[in-house]
Amino acid sequence: MQNLDFECAALGRELAREADEKLLTDALGVLEEQGVYAFFLYLKAREKNQDTIYKKCWDFLKKTPHGQPLLSQSTNNNNVFEELKSLATHLDDLLFARDLLRQTLIYARYHVKAQSEAGK
User: Fold this and answer.
1) What's residue 3's pLDDT?
2) What is the dihedral of CA 59, 48, 104, 35, to 10 degrees?
3) Half-sphere exposure of 47 (CA within 13 A, CB side)
4) Are 19 and 115 in contact (CB under 8 A)?
5) May I ask the CATH class of domain 4-118?
6) Which residues contact 27 (CB under 8 A, 6 or more apart)?
């Protein structure tokens, strides 16, 4: 059995190495206020290097935490609308994805704070 909280923590730690606290906080705010689709659009617009938070979160949702992937296994990361439209047909999966992303971003923020505190 896979411990999803630990998976979120591991990804959060990885994201903290590549992003600052402001970007993580802003992305979390977009996720909570506007949802998963807006979260990915926000990151795509904000990030110069698409291999950072956007891609890592996208790949994380393509894993199979409960037997089947939340997103399809296609490699077309440019069509976020179609992928998330499919995800939205199953409300439980959409809310599950949102919760996983939220937990990941919270852990990432904690890791950034811990790194800045250790540097003082």
Assistant:
1) 84
2) -90
3) 22
4) no
5) mainly alpha
6) 39, 42, 43, 46, 53, 105
